[in-house]
């Protein structure tokens, strides 16, 4: 084997081992939280990683990819061709209005609805493009961080109502990206709060389905699972550090 082939083979083994490790950690966290491990979907956050890494991930059994830029996902899907259809594609980054059409044509799930106007626009695009139903989550900014793209809690109902009034959008859950804190334990209150908001909306039958909770990344996904996450978005622990 030449050097490149060796590296690729090692990479594939690494990925499979990391995937197993993350699944085991999810299973243990689910047990601590009194939940079933298969309630939790692992989204492999592949942003910035080359398409070869996604191919390895698919071979190792990855089912869901998370990307934060529309154009990057478009290109990766093209390069993966038919294999791309073996995964569900999640948009987890901020969605600009002028990218909404590409997003609606590229992603299976959009996690980052943060405004009523964006919901209305996506709905109109789905109508025009003949997309019957697009699952979306509303991103909530629980810490009042101006740099984060979510809707503040006091604006949540307006966005929820706008999604529910959009006949081509299906509100499937809530997403959050809490502040990055060195001590992951300090993030727990944000996860608890998102679950409370989900429960409140679920009691009003706001969701199609059970009401997903998209929360938790490499450094805090176990806490998120303990607190009820049904979708964790994990990049670094699966693919290694981003350049
Ligand atoms: C990049 C990203 C992740 C994954 O982060 P890691 O720390 O690499 O696991 C999760 N969610 C969002 C919204 C991201 O942008």
The number of helical segments is: 9
Which residues form runs of ≥5 with pLDDT under 50? 1-8
What would you report as the Rg, rounded to the nearest angstrom?
18 Å
Structural class: alpha/beta
Q: Give the overall shape, derived from the CA principal axes.
A: globular
Span between N and C termini? 26 Å
Which small molecules are bound? Answer: pyridoxal-5'-phosphate
Describe the biggest sheet? 9 strands, parallel
Q: Could you give the count of β-strands?
A: 9
Estimate what percentage of residues fall within beta strands. 15-25%
Helix and strand run: HEHEHEHEHEEHEHEHEH
Q: What percent of the residues sit in helical stretches (DSSP H or I)?
A: 40-55%
- In round numbers, the mean pLDDT is 93
Key features of this structure:
alpha/beta, 9-stranded parallel beta sheet, 9 strands, disordered N terminus, binds pyridoxal-5'-phosphate
